[in-house]
Write a structure and sequence with these properties.
The chain has helices at residues 4-22, 26-36, 58-70, 75-84, 133-148, 151-216, 225-234, and strands at 44-46, 52-55, 88-89, 95-98, 219-220, 223-224. Helix 1 (4-22) packs across helix 5 and helix 2 packs parallel to helix 6. Strand 3 (88-89) and strand 4 (95-98) form a beta hairpin. Strands 1-2-4-3 form a four-stranded antiparallel β-sheet, with helices on one face. Among the domains are: 7-115, Winged helix-like DNA-binding domain superfamily/Winged helix DNA-binding domain (Arc Repressor Mutant, subunit A); 175-224. It is of the alpha+beta class and 235 residues long. The chain is rod-shaped and about 115 Å long. Residues 66-90 form the HSF-type DNA-binding domain. This is Heat stress transcription factor B-3-like. It comes from Sesamum indicum. Keywords: DNA-binding, Nucleus, Phosphoprotein, Stress response, Transcription, Transcription regulation. Pfam families: HSF_DNA-bind (PF00447).
């Protein structure tokens, strides 16, 4: 019978195992992030159906994108890593890779993709024995320790990078909208200035005509009334 301390240790191990299984492996999350990023569509993107992704420019992908997330620039190593997670090369004329759980818009299924366990057919296989559940769980934890030790922190980092890119895109969109609004406002201000100047010139011309009329004196049928009065006085 297990002691209370053994049961507590076993319970903690089970919780840690479940938490690791709930988060996708960092390699898959980073690859998905690269494929989803519209800024890199010229180098790597989904195929037309979103059922596979294509590395359009392997050389540029290796030199520019791989070092940003995977800390190396070896395209062959990237392909081997894909193979360990069950990806298949589905085209002969381009680098197109597919996995049934790796789909556009279905990021949650990444958690279901697991690294293949290496096995050797040359070694004699031991007799299969029924093991207690605790022993099986301990073996699974040991097998996944290397690949999953930093899954939680890496997943959080990848999520932050995705959020940062999304915020940058939204900021760029808002900046574009602001520039358009500024341009429109400037056009309205310029139009108002032109229209206001036109009205000012019209008002000034009206004032000038009025002053000219007053200085010449009133006219009747084109004849100044002042002259008519003088003519009447001479009679």
């Amino acid at each position: 019978m297990e002691s209370s301390s053994d049961q507590s240790h076993h319970g903690k191990g089970l919780v840690e195992y479940v938490m690791r299984k709930a988060a996708p492996p960092p390699f898959l999350l980073k690859t998905y992030m690269l494929v989803e990023d519209p800024a890199t569509d010229g180098v790597i993107s989904w195929n037309g159906e979103g059922t596979a992704f294509v590395v359009w420019q392997p050389a540029e992908f290796a030199s520019d994108l791989l070092p940003t997330l995977f800390k190396h620039s070896n395209f062959s190593s990237f392909v081997r890593q894909l193979n360990t997670y069950g990806f298949r090369k589905v085209a002969t004329n381009r680098w197109e890779f597919s996995n049934d759980k790796f789909r556009r818009g279905d990021r949650d299924k990444l958690c279901e993709i697991r690294r293949r366990k290496s096995s050797s057919s040359n070694k004699p296989q031991p007799d299969v024995q029924v093991q207690p559940a605790a022993a099986k769980l301990g073996q699974i934890e040991e097998d996944d320790q290397k690949s999953s030790s930093s899954t939680s922190s890496s997943s959080e980092l990848a999520t932050l990078i995705l959020d940062n890119k999304r915020l940058k895109q939204e900021n760029g969109f808002l900046s574009s909208e602001l520039a358009v609004m500024k341009k429109r406002c400037k056009g309205l201000v310029d139009l108002a200035a032109i229209y206001g100047g036109h009205l000012e010139r019209e008002d000034q011309r009206g004032v000038d005509e009025l002053e000219e009329t007053c200085s010449e004196g009133p006219k009747l049928f084109g004849v100044r009334l002042e002259l008519e009065v003088e003519a009447g006085n001479n009679k």
